[in-house]
Amino acid sequence: MGPMRALFSALFALAVAAIGSCTPATPASEPALWRITDADSEIWLYGTVHLLPPDLEWRGPRFEAAFARAEEFVTETDTSEAGVREINRLTQELGALPAGESLSRQLGPNDAARLQRIAHGLNLDAGTLERQRPWLAALQLSYAATLRAGHLPEAGVEAVLMPEARARGLRLSYLETAAQQIEILASLPPTDEARFLSQTLIDIEAGTDALTAMDAAWARGDVEDLARFLEPQWRDVGPRIHDAIILKRNRAWADEVARRLDGSGRIFIAVGAAHLVGDDSVVDLLRARGIAVEGP
């Protein structure tokens, strides 16, 4: 469940709308948090996971102090009811195969057999999957497999924090529109789409050990360990997918963080953890600009 697990850490709204538990963190550990300040700004960067086991404890004192100070809460995309409706509409529009085409015909015999086997095991309608483009089928399958492993969207970080932010009257904003999120995968070349689905099928059949280990690394704030998990996963899906899902967005988000630093206020930014660790992360890009970023 490698690349798709990384995708859930990188591409929240599309994964949730389109479609064992871990050991709780000890009180002394919590997910990584970065802080950027100047004379009139304080910005926190918090790496999230969007589907989690409900018994996984991730709230710690550093997080609580930062979130309590925030005046604005920033997520990857608009997850209001209207935003989710737009994501669903665009997903159905851009994720459907042309009439007369089927998903299995775009796959090799091994992948076609895996598709049928996994869909049956997850109680998914194979006929519905057959009408979907490979990128959407990959999302559906991985989402279902993650649910089967006991990870729930309502236990994910953004799902927990958004009602609290609304109750406190924080300003709400996001880094991408629904169209921008979906276009990331909808514009992949056919060969990359097929590779994406193929690797997803392999990962699902490999089981949930990687899923559990990644959640544990995230929950204890071990960014080096998390980066070691992610690096081979992105290599497996190929450089174009890695660039589309992670690197291009990192560059755009670093620009946005720098722009907000030129303004004022206290801003809490929560994005998929895969964007904040490893080479060319948002944190790396900001530091390369000479911006001081406190944190790991």
Annotate the secondary structure layout.
Layout: H1 2-8, H2 12-17, E1 33-37, E2 41-48, H3 61-69, E3 72-77, H4 81-94, H5 109-121, H6 126-130, H7 134-148, H8 157-167, E4 171-176, H9 178-186, H10 190-206, H11 209-219, H12 223-237, H13 239-261, E5 265-272, H14 282-288
Parallel strand pairs: 2-5, 3-4, 3-5
Antiparallel strand pairs: 1-2
Helix pairs in contact: 4-9, 5-10, 7-10, 11-12, 13-14
Describe the structure in your own words:
There is one protein chain. Helices cover 55% and strands 11% of the residues. The protein has helices at residues 2-8, 12-17, 61-69, 81-94, 109-121, 126-130, 134-148, 157-167, 178-186, 190-206, 209-219, 223-237, 239-261, 282-288; strands spanning 33-37, 41-48, 72-77, 171-176, 265-272. Strands 1-2-5-3-4 form a five-stranded mixed beta sheet, with helices on both faces. β1 (33-37) and β2 form a beta hairpin. 47% of the residues are buried.
